[in-house]
Each structure stands twice: as structure tokens, then as C-alpha cells.
Amino acid sequence: MSNINNISGYINIDKSIDWTSNDVVRKLKGLLGVKKIGHGGTLDPLATGVLPICINSATRFSEYILLGTKTYRATIKLGEATDTYDSEGSITNKNEYSFIDKTYILKTLDEFKGEIIQIPPMYSALKHKGKPLYKLAREGIIVERKPRNVSINKIQLIEYDPPLMTVEINSSHGFYVRSFANDIGKRLGTFAHLVNLQRTRAGVFQIKDSIKIDELIYYVNTNEVMKYIIPIDYTLSHLRHIHVNLHQEKQIRTGQKIIVHDMPQFTLWNENEEIIVFSKENTMIGLLTFSKKHLELKPKKILNI
Predict the structure, then answer these.
(1) Phi, psi (5° rounding) for residue 227?
(2) Catalytic annotation present for 44
(3) How big is the CA angle at 28 (ends 23 and 31), to the nearest 5 degrees?
(4) Could you report the per-residue pLDDT of 183-212, keeping only the tens digit for each?
(5) What is the pLDDT of residues 230-266, one digit of tens each?
(6) Which of 65, 111, 200, 233 has CB 3.0 to 4.6 Å from 40, enough for a Cys bridge?
(7) What is the pTM of this model?
(8) Domain 9-67+204-234, CATH
(9) Are the C-beta atoms of 300 and 287 separated by less than 8 Å?
């Protein structure tokens, strides 16, 4: 097996159904033998699709995935509500849906575009007094959840074959597709729950570039796994970047600030803007923040050599 114990980066996993996100992390930690590993945003066991895995130092940059937009393809069943808001739960209500046509659905979907207020489901990993909500729900305890502001950037009806409707949603961080399924059922004048979900994009990671765990196992065994390790700076391509000389690199690696008087591009930078720094050899050194007042860059997250 290729020695990747000290390599940092991401793997774009296409999660299979019935795996939890933590199942994937545990499997890959053993498979790859890495020290630190985590994921870039939970997917329910029911869901499939893009699950970015952060390896070693990449775990320190996971927020650039977590806080990014996500795209989902969701199939929702009309006429039935469940306690989990998806097909894994028990049916709690039924209602007629035959009056709902495509025109009505399109009009209702339009009402969800933009910023909306959403209440997270009880069956979620959010915590109440240190205990996950889903554990409380299993004990029959329902607690009040704080509404949160989320955004739907784009929503499109892909197919309507009653009682099933399939939609594609591009949303902000913190959006629950299960809550959306429950909410749109009510808005349509019936009930609804999620029956199928695929995440097709998480930040910069897309389903077309992902790899199944079984495929990854094969490439580990054939010593080809390195070509599926994505560099850390892949998730930071939206930030400005600069190259520094050897002296400046040493300063940064020892936690010192560097002066930017001789960097003409600093006039374009904003206060507290994050700047990616590369060495002369084009190796990422880390992430620094800019002080307009002092005209200096301060180390924020520095990668180990």
C-alpha cells in the first residue's frame, strides 16, 4: 500500500445507502492508516452521494466545505407524514394528494426560493443540553428546536409521478432536506416525507468526480490511491494567493507576521481577508490574514512540513 500516513488532503467519496457518515470515516481510517480523519458534512444513512473526507491537516480546513453550498436531488412522497420526516420513520399522518398537479407544485416551489426559516427535525444530530436530538426522539421526548435562517439558491422540479416528486435543490449550509420535505407537504395542503436523497455537490466537490469505497479499496491494494487524494488548496481556490521567498516562509512557519510593503497586490486586499500562501516551489504553506492597519500578514493555519 502507498504510504499516505503523513499526506494531507481530501477524498471525494460517493457514500452508499445505509452507511452513516461516521461509518465511512471509521472504514477509511483503518484502510488508509492515517492519524486524523473526518468528513465535510453529515449525510443520513438514507442518503447517498458526495461525502468529502478530510485527511490529516485537511481536517483543519473542513469549514470551507461545511460552510459551502450543497446540491441535492430529492424524491418526496406526498400524502404521508412520518416522525423522522423520511421513509425510515413511522407514518404519523395521511391525507389526500390527488388534487395536486404540476402547476401547483411549481408555484409552491417558487415560494421556497431565497432565504427561509426552517426548524431542524427532531431526528437529527443537533444537541439539546449535550444530548443528540435523535436519542431524545427515540425516548419519546420532543423538545423545542430553534428556527434557523437558511437559503435555497435554486430549486427545480425534475419529475412528478404522483405521489412521488423529484426536485433538485441548491442550498446553504445548515439546510435539512427532510425538514423541507415535511414543510412542502404542509404548504401543498397534504403531508409528505423524504424517500430518496442524493447529494450531488458539496462545496467544490461534485458527484461526477467521486469514488465509491469499494473502488477506493481496490486502488489502495494496487498502490494507486494517491491519485485520489485531492490537495488542501482545492477547497480554497476562491481565496487570493501569493508566493513568498524562503526567508518569509521561515518567518511564517515559526508563527511570525510578514510585512507586505513589497507586495504591490496588497492594495487590493480587504481587512482580515484570508490569503493562501505558497512557497517558491509552489507548495502550500498555510492560510494568513491581512491587517490593513499594519500592512502585515498574520499566520492563521499553517501546514506542517
Answers:
(1) -75, -5
(2) yes
(3) 130
(4) 999 999 999 999 999 999 999 999 999 999
(5) 999 999 999 999 999 999 999 999 999 999 988 888 8
(6) 65
(7) 0.91
(8) 3.30.2350.10
(9) yes
